[in-house]
Amino acid sequence: MFHKELHKLFAAYPKSFVKLSLTGESGSNGKKEARYITVHEDISPKVWKDHLDGKYRIGLRPELGDECVWACIDIDPNDYKNFSKKKTINIIANFNLPFIPVVSKSGGLHLFIFFTKPAKIDKVKAKLQQYNEQYFLANEIFPCNKTINMPYFNMNATMEFAYN
After folding, report:
1. What pLDDT sits at residue 77?
2. Which of 34, 109, 129, 130 has the most other CB atoms within 10 Å of its CB?
3. What pLDDT is recorded for position 62?
4. Weakly modelled stretches of the chain, pLDDT under 70
């Protein structure tokens, strides 16, 4: 029933999601390239089950109108091959920051944060920007009207796992 828990935890823009597949190519910085297809359907527990079973990867937008229940700082390093996740994970631990670091599809980090009740997107983005400027200097913060790849694709053999 893990798929139902993730469906609830990652409540997302309800009218569409993205299916993505890796091309097998990598950019000059080592980031894995993917193809994206927008599916104009509700995100359902079955979509999550298919993602966890390895049928296809999904990308979601955290926006629920002008609110969200999760957000993310996306750390895409300039050089994936020499990127050390340990430094970021230590910053989160040492400063008791409210993020759950998850390995991204390319080997960077997604720093997820979850809220007990819906929060206004403008306030979430402002707070995440403060954290980002002080600790991480990442290029992208979600929500930003784009999808972000969800963790635990092909969960029994996943490389996209959370650190605690």
Report:
1. 86
2. 109
3. 98
4. none
